[in-house]
Every structure is written in structure tokens, then in C-alpha cells.
């Protein structure tokens, strides 16, 4: 016992040394940022954004999911790493008086649809099966690359779900539902397959907190727009289109995210308090017990942006150059011989003689 | 320079040196290849914009972006420049030789707008030709076809991954390859249409990303989602074809043609703007902004503005380029005049500015009367559903030939598996154009190809050919049954109905009136100028149809359950009581008062005092038994369980009814 103690002490001391060592390398950066960034352990960011409800009167759910899409895209996650699932077409819906545009506000402040949206799963493709396949990486053979979640053990994944939910389930397209158990199993499978480093689970639906209750996987931070037994409410109606524009929780979340810049020091902790009960009417539920970091020290860009922790090195680094064969050989530029193009007759006249 | 980056005193010093040498070499070679005409001839990109005013205050704007790469041998496909990499990879991965994809919203009105430059049907449409050596089998092509659809579902953000064997056919006669099939190679074709597919910004964005300049500059910068989707008709097209010399695979050209065909309704613009603009329009009004320049990678960047027919009445500001101001194209006896704006000229000596062209209509009050009446196209098609109910119907396709001479017609129908067609009911009847009713006169088939469908597996595929006499309409009808789907086969919005894709009609016109399509060997819009040919192959699409299949109504089983339960309950009570109770004849205990008022009071108090639970607990069984015992003839006003009189069979129902009333 007595002989072991100094060793343990030494080990602890060593740990402390190791922890303080990298901080010295990056003194030039603002200290707060460095503090937080050093704790970030991810190398890339992915976002899975799902609107699970169909039909025009669910316009608000599409506005919800597009609000988050707009924010993550603006903060730097490229379209190739955002999987956007939208169950119905609102922008080009015949009932939309402003084709190609979806707003979050009756005053048309922000066109959340934008000019360059890329929807990966749309319409009938938005099913529970496809969603679970996407999360667990068990997509069918031949699925396009843009429809796959190609995350790895270094990925911070943001999952956002919106739609009509109940205690323990979320409806997809009014025809099927995903249960909280299925969701928890899917995330557990993601963890086992090393498909995420940290996962931020956001859900805006009625009784949303019931969806994260069954989670057991580590490194998951979950936030829900309402507790079990509560309804999530919509924000306001636009009389010109006759439907509700957006849900309360996402409305305030977007309001917060609009103020975030890629290098801002806002934290996830602040984001979790974005919609107090006085404005949301429902109580925002947070589940932190699976998450090892303090949300108040996690920059919001860990999930909503694509800022990687970088370390400036002044040391010499060895880089192995590629083999000669890999270079493009330019001496093969041969002049193409022009030829006469012959094309088969485009109409089978032989039948009409 | 570069020494710190090199591995110092490593075992392999040579690669570093060679790499440095190559690094120094690459900028030189790139620069020289860009300058030399040889390198440029191999690959070229052209952008074109055609503006054609149509009748009825419509304007057709047609964008065409063409990349043509003479790549030679297949191995060269690994190094792409202007051609998008996905297209080059496509040719390496699959045996695909030719590919067409169309994403369209809206319906092209042939009667008033004439024929479009590229044909498309509402929704998504896709067909491809595969060409391989003799080992290529049909099932391999099927798997390649679905993989191809999956690739483009990702590339274009469309649900093309729904293309599978349940909605794909192999057209036999109508779709011809745009190459010369070789004798030693096997060719396969697959066709599929998804009429339900919507087209929105998410399709336009990736479509623009395939262009060499993206949407940053050139004509593509005009395609902004808000202004594209504000149109009456918009169609995005993508066509890839490979042309090889004499079937040798060593000297080939790949052509990628991206088209965007839009039709604007000027009356909508007038409504939205406060000032009455008298039918004027400009690039800025159509697209929301002027043109910011040309794509620097484009060999040519030209805008063609039609000056005759509907375009005749407009004055152009600024007028077209002074040299080669107008192109006069005579094609098959039909003349079109185009004003040309060369963007390389327009942006030659000006700095930063936006280029805009305005079309000014004459300021006369009755301009609608001044408009040139459109010449109707020689061949028009329509399609509709006949019959009523959700069980069976009839698909009718009407083809009208207003030309004076007979035209050969080919029709291709794809009937989805949930609609069952009957070949023996197929008929083609005709009528002169002026007559309203179709008579019994039939048109004989010149060719008939029918591949019956299979439930949940294959669509029915029908191709017919006949000769349609001049000034005559033909009505093609086929009777169909609608299938009852399984529970899980209904889409989430089954109320919307199910689609039957449009029919494809092809013909060969002897003259070029209204004909604007590119000649098959050409690849730019300007190749259609003065392209007189002996005949012009026309291809048209009919409207798509929606059928409402019999949808199960879940209120029906609910009603059935309620009714059945009631009937069972009504029957169970008497049967149970008859089966289980013994009827004992006994003397009535005379507790009933003789006095009428007392009798009444007694009755009232007994009823009021009866606990509710007793009434509810008295099910059909015991209640009936009690009532039976308590009956005194038909009067039945004695409280139950007091009088014991012999019950008679025919009274069984009545007490039961009384009990039921009490429970309510």
C-alpha cells in the first residue's frame, strides 16, 4: 500500500503535466476558445435533419427542419455532410403563393429554403426504415453516396427530428412511427459501430422528451422541446398561406443560431436554455447524464459548425510524397482524329411502307 | 526552395527530385495546352440561351449548356476537365452509351406553344441505352439500370431510386439509339417515368453544380430558384451520349447536354407589378437580375432571340450585335429569324455591369388583337380517362393530324402494374377532324408489340404503330381494371391517387413547321439553323393520368363490428335465458296495491329507488329473464321480480326492449 502511493501520485502528476502541455503551444488564440477547443475531440461534423410529416398543414415542420439546415450550412457543415430528409414538398407546393420559398416568419424575414438547398431524402423516401438504415449505416446496396451517413469515430453528429409525436414515438408520414426504443437501439448500434464521437440529439415534437428516455449510449446529449405529457406548440400563423409557420422551440433556436458566427464563443449550454417556459409554453427537456463534458464549456460549433480543433506546429514534419506513377503524365496528349458521326435512323419507317 | 518539405537524407531521395521537377513542369504544360488549338479542340463547353415569345403572352426561355469531349480511349476518362467527374465515372462503371433524364413541372401546351426544343413529361423521366460485348446479359443490364438510377438520385436530389423493374420497360421500336449499333455488340434500352416526382430548388442546385462555371457566371447565373419556379412550365434535362468512330472504342466523343426549358406567363408579371407594362419584358424581369457576364470556360456564349412570328412585334433594347445581326434559318419550308447577342462581344470592353435586354411591345391599346395567330402544329396529342367508379375504366389517347397528308404514328404506353389492361379491347378508331363523334371505323395496326404486366412485378408495355390519314383524329382506347392494393402498398397520401405515366407518341413529319428540335447529329442549338432534312422525327408526350384506386375505408369495418356485436348481443340474451332458466309457475304474491293512485306511487318510488348499478348490471340475459317473469299480459307496468306469472314465448322481445330503454 505504502509503496504504491507515490506511484499513483506520480501518475496523477504526470497526467496533469500532459494535460497542461498542449495548452502552451497555442497561446496566441483566445484563452476561452482554446480551453473549450482543446476539449473537443471530434474531427468532422455530420448532421441528420428529419422532417417526418407530410401534408400542407404541416408546413411548420418543414420550416423547422430547414431552419436548422440553414444554420448548420451557414456555420460550415458542407451539403455532403448534411442528410436532409423532408417528407413533403412545401416550397414548390401548388398552395404556396411564393414558389421555391419557405419562411420562418409571416414577415418573411428569413427564407429558410434558400437558393441552394439539397434534399437527400424526400417524399416517400422518408420512412422509418430508411432513417434507421441511414443511422446504422446499413443502407441498401447501390445507395447514392449523398444518402449515406459516412461518419466515423471522430464525427460529431447532430440529429434533429421534427414531426408529430406522442409518448414514446414519432410519426412518419402519418403512416408509420418510430419508437423511442428503436431510436435508442439505432444510436447504440451507431456507438458500437463507431459511427460517432459525440451525438447531439434534438427533437421538436409533442412529448418530445419521451424519445430520448431509452438512450443508454455514451456521449449523447439530448434536448427536447417538451416533456412527457406536454404538447409542443407552434409559434404563429401566416394568414396569407393559412397555416402555422414554425414551432416555438425551433423558432427561438433559429433566433439564437442566427446570432452565432463560426468563431463565436457561444456554448451548447446557452443553446439549451434558448427557449424558457415563458416563451415556449412547453418545458424544454435536457438529458445530460450520458454526456461527459460540461455543456457550458462546449462551443456550439462543435455540433452546428465544422470547426475542428487545430494545433499550430512549428516543428518539422515529414511528409511522404506519392510515387511517380501517381502523377499525371502530360506527354500522352495525342491529337484526336476527327471522324464522321453516323447515327441510326430515328424512326422505324420500315413498318409504314 | 522546398527543402524543408523534403524527407531529409531519406532512403529514397529520387522521388523528391522528380516531384520537384514535375511541379515545375506542370504549370508550363497546363499553360501550353490551354493555348494550343489541339488541346482546346478535344473538349469544349458552349452555353446558349434562346428566347422565343409564344402566343398567349407567354415567353419560352431555353438554356442549353453543352460539354463535348473528344476523349478518345476509355482510359482518358480518368482525367476530367470540363466534363463533370460523375459523368466520366459513369462511362467507366457502366456499359451505358446514352442517357436521358428529364425533371419537369407543368404541361407543355402543343396547340398554342408549338413544339418544344426538348421534349419532357411532367415528373421525372429517364431512359438509357446500354451497349456491351456479347457477354452482357439482360439481368446485368437490369442491375446496372437500377444502379444508374440510384447514382442520379444522389446527383440530382431526385427520387430516381424508385426506378426499378416494376416501372421500367425495354422499348422496342419507339426509342432509337443516338449512335450506330454495331453488329458485334449487344444493345439494351431501359425506360422509366415517375410522374409523381416534384421538381424544386433541390434539383436545380445540383444540376447547376454539374456546369463548369457552376452558377457563378454565365447564363446559369440567371437560373435563380425563385424565378425558375415561378413559371408555368419548367423542365430540367440532362443528356449524355457517347459517339464512337465505327464502333471502335478508341476514338470516342462524350457529349453532356444540360437543358433548362422555362415558360413564363407575362400576365402574371403584369399582375405582380403595379404599372401596366403592356406586355413588355426583359431579362431582369424574367430572371430577377441581369446577366453578369459569360462563363470564362465557354467557347461560345450566345443568346438567340426570335424575331419573327410572336417575336415580330417586339422592339429590342439594346438591338442585337451589329455584325451577324440576324440569323435567318429556313428549315423544311419554315423560316425562323433569330437576333444574336454574343456575350463575348457584349462584355469585351465594358467593365463591371449587368447586361439586360428589354422586349418592348408596341404601345397600342388593342394589342391582344394585333397578335399573330399561332399556326397550329401538325400533330397534337391528348389523353384522358373514361368510365366511372373505382373498379374499371378506359384509357383514351387522342391523336390529331391536321396535316393534309397521312403521318406514321408510333405510340408507347406504359401501364403500371396496379392497372390491368385488356389487349382484346385495344382499338384505334378514327374520325375526320371536323366531325365530333368517333364512328366505328378502325385504323389497322402497322405494328403491335405487347408485353403483359405482372402484378407487383412488371408494368404492361404496349407499342402500336399505324398510319394516320390527313385531317383526321385517332382515338386509341384500352379497357383497364384497377387493382385492390394490399394494406402496406398504399402510399401515405393514398387520397391523392395513383399515376399512370404519359404515353410517348412519335412521328415523322415531312416539313419543319413548328419543329424546333436539334438535329440528331448536332449538339448546339445553332446546329438547328438551316438544318433541312428529308424528314423530321417528332416525339410528343401526352398528359399523365391520375386514377383513384379503390381505397379501403376503415369506417366500414368499424360499422360492421358495431352491427355484428349488437346482433350477437340481441340474440345471445334470449337464447341464454331460454337455455339456462327454468320457468316455474307459481302463485302471485299479492303485494301490488289495488288502489290506482297507490299503484302509481308505488311504481314511481320503486323506479326512483332502484339503484343504478342494478339497472346496468342487468344484462341482456338476466334482464330478459326478470322481465319475462314479471309480465302481466301486455301491460308490463308491474315492477320486475315481484309478480310471478307464466311467461309466454311471444312476449320475449318486449321486456328486453324495456330494459334497454332503462339503461339509456
Automatic annotation (TrEMBL), chain A:
Matching entries from Pfam families are given as:
Peptidase_C13
Active-site residues per Swiss-Prot or TrEMBL entry: 164, 206 (nucleophile)
Q: Which InterPro entries match?
A: GPI_transamidase, Peptidase_C13
The molecular function terms of the Gene Ontology recorded here are: GPI-anchor transamidase activity
What are the record keywords, sorted? GPI-anchor biosynthesis, Signal
The stretch of residues making up the signal peptide is: 1-18
Pathway terms, separated by semicolons:
Glycolipid biosynthesis; glycosylphosphatidylinositol-anchor biosynthesis
Q: Does the keyword Transport apply?
A: no
One GO CC term, this protein: GPI-anchor transamidase complex
* Keyword Phosphoprotein belongs to the record: no
Q: Name one GO biological process term.
A: proteolysis
Spell out the family assignment given in the record's similarity comment: Belongs to the peptidase C13 family.
Q: What name does the UniProt record give this protein?
A: GPI-anchor transamidase
Say which species the protein is native to. Answer: Drosophila kikkawai (Fruit fly)
State the encoding gene.
PIG-K
Automatic annotation (TrEMBL), chain B:
Please list which residues make up the signal peptide.
1-31
Compositional bias per record (Gly residues), positions renumbered to this chain: 616-625
Q: Name one GO cellular component term.
A: GPI-anchor transamidase complex
Superkingdom of origin organism: Eukaryota
* UniProt keyword annotation of Secreted present: no
Q: Which InterPro entries match?
A: PIG-T
Name the residue ranges with Acidic residues bias: 655-664
Q: Where is this region: Disordered?
A: 609-664
Which GO biological process entries does UniProt record here?
attachment of GPI anchor to protein
User: Which keywords has UniProt assigned to this entry?
Assistant: Signal
How is this protein named in the record?
GPI transamidase component PIG-T
